[in-house]
UniProtKB/TrEMBL annotation:
This is ATP-dependent DNA helicase DinG. [4Fe-4S] cluster binds at C124, C197, C202, C208. Binds 1 [4Fe-4S] cluster. The gene is dinG. Belongs to the helicase family. DinG subfamily. Type 1 sub-subfamily.
């Protein structure tokens, strides 16, 4: 159904107000095009298609105001919430502090906006009070069921300080608003948790920081979130965000969504954690049975321990590569699967018995309420045990699952780490393809979705994005916007290089030599490395010979390095930053703060993680080429992102140099060069 004239007018008038009043505004055809496409897509003007649009909007397009001024009026007119999700805190802060307040001046539709955070970012005031008070009634109960060992005096003091500040309204209950955060063990016990939360049944419900925040969210028209929170909330029952069907999603920095989802749908537990959790279940069960005067439930710790011991013996004999044993294409060894199945059966029986005991405990409390100093710690411990048992069973089920032959297999592996001179083994299971999950959770349900980023396509196509996220080309809209910058004035130099990056020693020595020759001592330069080892080696080789100041990632925080660099440039001094992946994205050094970007080598994602290795092995088993399907498109996207650090405004200038001769010696070099913006390509002759 087409946009109504009223809505068209609102969007048009908002844009005119922005154009007329905003300082430094520049009229851009690409921004107009983006507004039009978002409006058409969300209004459902593309018949028989999803309300999904993927927009590659290069730096300088004005994408944030394009999606705010078009999506907000449409969401409000259709009584939908607008959820804007980003990958990092920096963009969230920019939206909250700058962009949304600015948009509210020009948008013809009035709107309220709020930041949403996960439940665990808020304190549970009930837990904080109970654990802080003297525990005069039964100190051992609170400490025994909630802490593996009683909290230290300084930890009790931490909680007392937090309670005082909360009571005196000097602290709002959010961990992010604390100057000094408590120990993670302490925060884990006093943070909100969906397994221990009693919601409206809690006596502190009206004063709960989490529910106060959630009330604000229900009143907001625009909700700012991050990819992790969106994925976590939608996959655990949609309890924090509005219902998916009632929401329009904007995924900014959408190129990060796949990696976030892969991480989110990965499961892990350890042999030691299973041991501790079963003992906690036994301890809590005994406390409940004692209070309710019933017989203890049977929890076969001895047999579970024996199975864990058998697993540990097998794990010890496995071959490990960097402390990881990866099962070939996700197929778990028969002996491990057999014991894991028996273990899963025992833990499932334990969980079922514990659930019945929990029900009898709840019935008991209804008939005969107990002192809250006894009931509250036990309720929390019950919730914690339930959470742990559910997590262990979920992992074991995934670990033992038979994969679908028509899809990529799960990745399954054992990892080992040493804690207090004792080796602990972790059991891991992860999906290699999360496209079905995303379709079930978001694409098939949401009232509309906009996915945008400065780099969303790779090798000139959206195919890689579609494969990763489960989007079907024929069912959605796609838009690649031109950059407003004059890239033809930027030299992209493929340096004359003898050493191939695979010749690590020779390449490193040549990088150091060429840097000394090419870096201008009066300029701002950024040198991007693909490996920390090479970066440190080059830094050692050039540090004393380089005239400008050298700032190496790892010596200071990223924020401090950028501040130091800008201060040096303000004083007219030369400054060189050596950085890795995190400096190849999200770094905004305008004007003469950066006039030369040097790329040590292409960033090919060699499959190092178990998930990547499993996927690569699977593709090879299907006579497909993981390099062409994964590594090359990803390298193209990363190269464009790295180059994007140079030109941030229409008045910026400078050059880009790459020290990777594969750009001219390998068959794929031309593809990578063709996918770049229209730089002035200079290939130095040998």
């Amino acid at each position: 159904m087409p946009l109504s004239e009223d809505l068209k007018g609102q969007i048009r008038d908002s844009f005119i107000a922005l154009k007329d009043d905003m300082d430094g505004f520049q009229l851009r055809g690409a921004q107009n095009k983006m507004i039009a496409e978002i409006s058409k897509t969300l209004a459902g003007e593309y018949k028989d298609n999803n309300k999904i649009l993927c927009v590659e909007a290069p730096t300088g397009t004005g994408k944030t105001f394009a999606y705010l001024l078009s999506a907000i009026p449409i969401a409000k007119a259709n009584k939908k919430k607008l959820i804007i999700s980003s990958a990092n805190v920096a963009l969230q802060e920019q939206l909250l502090v700058k962009d949304l307040p600015e948009a509210s001046k020009y948008c013809q539709a009035e709107f309220k906006y709020e930041l949403v955070k996960g439940r665990s970012r808020y304190v549970c005031i009930r837990n904080l009070i109970n654990l802080t008070e003297d525990n005069a009634t039964d100190e051992s109960l609170a400490a025994g069921v909630l802490f593996d060992e009683p909290p230290a005096q300084y930890q009790i003091q931490q909680m007392a300080d937090l309670l005082r500040d909360y009571s005196e309204q000097e602290w709002n209950g959010e961990i992010d608003d604390l100057i000094r955060t408590p120990d993670s063990m302490v925060w884990q016990k006093i943070a909100c948790n969906r397994f221990t939360c009693t919601a409206k049944n809690c006596e502190f419900y009206q004063d709960c920081s989490f529910f106060k925040a959630r009330k604000k969210i229900t009143q907001a028209d625009v909700i700012v979130a991050n990819h992790d929170l969106v994925l976590a909330d939608l996959s655990t029952g949609n309890t924090v965000l509005p219902n998916v069907e009632d929401a329009i999603f904007i995924f900014d920095e959408a190129h990060h969504l796949n990696a976030k989802a892969l991480s989110h749908f990965s499961l892990s537990t350890s042999t030691e954690f299973i041991k501790i959790s079963i003992r906690q279940a036994k301890s809590v069960s005994e406390q409940i049975c004692k209070i309710t005067e019933q017989n203890d439930i049977e929890i076969d710790i001895k047999q579970i321990d024996e199975h864990l011991q058998d697993l540990t013996m097998i794990f010890k004999g496995l071959p490990y590569d960097d402390d990881t044993h990866l099962f070939n294409q996700g197929q778990v060894d028969a002996s491990i699967a057999q014991i894991s199945t028996q273990l899963n059966t025992l833990i499932t029986v334990t969980a079922n018995r514990f659930q019945q005991l929990k029900k009898s405990w709840e019935d008991c409390l209804k008939l005969k309420p107990l002192d809250k100093h006894i009931a509250d710690p036990l309720n929390n411990a019950i919730g914690e045990v339930e959470q742990h048992l559910v997590g262990i069973i979920e992992l074991l089920m995934s670990f033992l699952k038979t994969d679908n032959d028509t899809k990529t297999p799960y990745s399954r592996w054992i990892s080992k780490n040493t804690v207090n001179k004792k080796i602990n083994y972790s059991i891991n299971s992860a999906q290699t393809d999360i496209s079905t999950n995303l379709d079930k959770l978001i694409w098939s349900k949401a009232a509309g979705c906009i996915l945008t980023s400065a780099t969303l396509s790779s090798l000139g196509s959206f195919e890689r994005l579609n494969n990763q996220l489960g989007l079907i080309k024929t069912e959605n809209q796609y838009l690649r916007l031109p950059s407003p910058f004059k890239f033809e004035k930027v030299d992209f130099i493929v340096a004359k290089f003898q050493a191939n990056p695979t010749q690590i020693y020779e390449h490193t020595q040549e990088v150091a030599t060429q840097l000394l020759e090419r870096i201008d001592s009066n300029e701002g330069s950024l040198v991007l490395f693909a490996s920390n080892k090479q970066m440190q080696m080059v830094a050692d080789l050039v540090e004393k010979k380089l005239e400008p100041h050298l700032l190496v990632q790892g010596e200071f925080s990223k924020k401090l390095i950028l501040e130091k660099h800008i201060n040096l440039r303000k004083q007219g001094q030369g400054s060189v930053i050596f950085g890795l992946d995190s400096f190849a994205e999200g770094v905004d050094l305008k004007g003469n703060n950066l006039t030369h970007v040097i790329i040590a080598k292409l960033r090919f994602s060699v499959p190092t993680s178990p998930i990547d290795k499993t996927l690569a092995d699977y593709l090879q088993s299907q006579n497909r080429n993981p390099f062409m399907e994964i590594s090359l498109p990803d390298a193209s996207l990363k190269l464009i992102q790295a180059c994007g650090r140079l030109i941030r405004t229409e008045t910026d200038s400078g050059k880009i140099t790459i020290f990777d001769n594969r750009m001219v010696t390998k068959f794929y070099g031309k593809q990578l060069l063709n996918a770049l913006p229209n730089y002035n390509i200079i290939i130095e002759q040998p």
